[in-house]
């Protein structure tokens, strides 16, 4: 197949801030003419991660789950895909971002609440008396503890990302992940909680064909209007510095897109 002149999407391992990139042909997915590049760019990282996390958790329409940091990039992607599946989602965020969680059918709770686990359990009792099937944590140890506390017995605690610190100067991956991995390993030895960790880069590297097929599936959902990626703003590539400042401010809701 010739890809010359065609619109495509792909998951990049790095170097996306450029007018031109080189990508293995095996990773390319055709981009439908009806899908804008700005919305498609939300899929290869945030939505791909969310899709694969939900598959690992085996979430169905009968389930209710907890999403910590629900107004973030992967958080909103999880909510969007959960809403498409008909599952119930309780999502933590700051109060000014409640409307973002509600936009995707989620039930918001204040992530800064002193007793966050208690607040989540209160909401869960109202909508899921059987308990929460899974909890998705993209934060630090507090996030993991809350996720474990709200799960039904045998529920899955899925951890991704980490405490990244400043966007432009994140701490080394091992420094931010090792404490979480140690805690998850200890909890995973009990029957009360199942645990799993997820890295999009690792998943794509180990299973590139699966990642390509998943991206094609997500593009189909987007073309059919079943998912609605949230774009915070579009900035010219030359304003990448401003994009980072916006990300670090914590005020951006949705994807910050750089346009060549």
Describe the overall structure:
By secondary structure, the chain is α/β, with parallel strands linked by helices. The chain folds into two domains: 89 residues, Quinone Oxidoreductase, Chain A, domain 1; 157 residues, 3-Layer(aba) Sandwich (Rossmann fold). It is 42% helix and 20% strand. The protein has ten helices and ten strands. Helix 5 runs parallel beside helix 6 and helix 8 crosses helix 9. The longest helix has 16 residues. It is globular. About 5% of the residues have low confidence. Keywords: NADP, Oxidoreductase. InterPro entries: ER (IPR020843), GroES-like_sf (IPR011032), NAD(P)-bd_dom_sf (IPR036291). This is NADPH:quinone reductase-like Zn-dependent oxidoreductase. It comes from Promicromonospora iranensis.
Number of strands: 10
Query: What's the number of domains?
Result: 2
Strand order of the largest sheet: 5-4-3-6-7-8
Instruction: Give the low-confidence spans.
Output: 163-175
Question: Mean of residue pLDDT?
Answer: 87
**Based on the structure, what is the oligomeric state of the protein chains?**
single chain
* H/E series: EEHHEHEHEHEHEHEHHEHE
CATH topology of the largest domain: Rossmann fold
């Amino acid at each position: 197949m010739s890809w010359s002149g065609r619109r495509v999407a792909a998951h990049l391992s790095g170097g996306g801030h450029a007018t031109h990139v080189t990508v293995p042909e095996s990773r390319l997915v055709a981009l439908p003419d009806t899908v804008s590049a700005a919305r498609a760019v939300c899929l290869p990282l945030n939505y791909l991660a969310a899709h694969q996390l939900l598959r690992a958790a085996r979430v169905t329409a009968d389930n209710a789950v907890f999403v910590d940091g629900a107004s973030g990039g992967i958080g909103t992607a999880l909510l969007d895909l959960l809403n498409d599946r008909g599952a119930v989602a309780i999502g933590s965020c700051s109060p000014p971002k409640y409307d973002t969680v509600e936009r995707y059918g989620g039930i918001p709770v204040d992530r800064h609440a002193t007793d966050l686990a208690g607040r989540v359990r209160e909401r869960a009792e109202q909508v899921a008396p059987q308990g929460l099937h899974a909890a998705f944590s993209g934060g630090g140890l507090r996030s993991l503890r809350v996720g474990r506390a709200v799960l039904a017995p045998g529920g899955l605690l899925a951890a991704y990302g980490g405490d990244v610190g400043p966007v432009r100067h994140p701490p080394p991956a091992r420094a931010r992940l090792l404490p979480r991995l140690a805690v998850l390993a200890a909890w995973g030895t009990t029957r009360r909680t199942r645990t799993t960790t997820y890295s999009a880069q690792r998943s794509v590297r180990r299973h590139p064909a699966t990642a390509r097929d998943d991206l094609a599936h997500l593009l189909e959902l987007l073309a059919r209007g079943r998912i609605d990626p949230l774009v915070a703003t579009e900035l010219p590539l030359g304003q990448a510095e401003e994009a980072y400042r916006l990300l670090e401010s914590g005020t951006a809701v949705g994807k910050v897109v750089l346009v060549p």
